[in-house]
Amino acid sequence: MEFQKVDGRKARGEKKRRAIVEATLRVIERDGVTGVTHRSVAREAGVPTTAPTYYYATLDDLLIATLLWSAEELCDEMLHVVATGSAREIAQCLAQAVDEHRGRTLAEYELYLLAGRRPELKPAARRWLDLAVELARPADPTGFRAFLAAIDGLLIQGLIADVAPNEAELEPIVSFLIRGRDELTAAPREE
Amino acid sequence: MEFQKVDGRKARGEKKRRAIVEATLRVIERDGVTGVTHRSVAREAGVPTTAPTYYYATLDDLLIATLLWSAEELCDEMLHVVATGSAREIAQCLAQAVDEHRGRTLAEYELYLLAGRRPELKPAARRWLDLAVELARPADPTGFRAFLAAIDGLLIQGLIADVAPNEAELEPIVSFLIRGRDELTAAPREE
DNA sequence: AAACTTATGGAACACTTGTTCAGGTAGTTG
DNA sequence: CAACTACCTGAACAAGTGTTCCATAAGTTT
């Protein structure tokens, strides 16, 4: 009756919803978007076969929810480093993304491609780009866009290299690019 | 009997093989790798349901063959422009890739991601990068790698933009990047 | 504690999938 | 023209898919 009191049933439901989304992300990391089925997700999450269907009307909804959530998470992690970190920090971040977090990075780029075919995903896929621009407020937008594009390219090319590039290899390239971010950004920002 | 005479049956088979691969690429362009099934490919190619299975033992083999072939084709088209073209030419090429050839570009990046999970596809996915380096022979490899990375990034980001970027938007960015290719490449090459 | 609402899950259905296989067909050879 | 061989295919199957449906369990309210 208190206005704060939420229905315990709904609370439990929310928890399960989240567990399902997390399980879906694990499946994508392991097997790609192709590997996502109601059943594979249910197995991974340890819930009944019909639970994913119950919480997400269609398989598409589940995928979309998962990738939106994933994109948001990744944004928080990477954004600050990319927008304000040193070349060394950025290189380290990239090296991790294509090595330890390889599965996660692959999943992230599957979102990109999916967004290419599903307009409703575009904002989520583009979110880190928009936020990066907002955060860095570069005085030279052209150079900054080149920098951001190169980050995507380095990651994706890192994923198909025979051996993932390490921090030492990436740093000079990042340094070269970072000019587009810093050259003029260093000027005092007034807002 | 002449040593040139090939079995007419085999010749016909080769033609069908190619038709199947081309149909597969069309399916990928339209529906993505997910949409590729023996049956969808057969429908698209106008061949019997079992033909794809006959020519390619497994669905994976079919996908691999298609993507190898596609990568090779794209290489021939884009490579020269990217390695030696002017900023304007490159920008025009990119603008086309994310607009008229959008489906094809999407398909190409699905190859990238697939290669991330199937090591045997890596060489094919990486081919244009290797060839570009060989063709441009940049004196500044770092800048050139940054340039190549940015091309991938611009394409992929172009695919998820609300409206595909046009030549005019892309040209300044390419100009900014192309320094890494031309700055020192212009020096006389001796070999 | 009875009435009510909401979340949940097992069984089932219609459908599509990859793949197999025995027979037929077309091209080649003697 | 007959024998041969390699290529090809339609029907069929087992397995897995997304989704529906209703009985039940769990929680809330009166």
From TrEMBL, chains A, B:
One of its GO terms (molecular function) is transcription cis-regulatory region binding. It comes from the Bacteria. This is Transcriptional regulator, TetR family. Gene3D superfamilies: Tetracycline Repressor, domain 2. Keywords: DNA-binding. Residues 14-74 form the HTH tetR-type domain. Residues 37-56 bind DNA. It comes from Lentzea albida. InterPro entries: Homeodomain-like_sf, HTH-type_TetR-like_transc_reg, HTH_TetR, TetR_C_31.
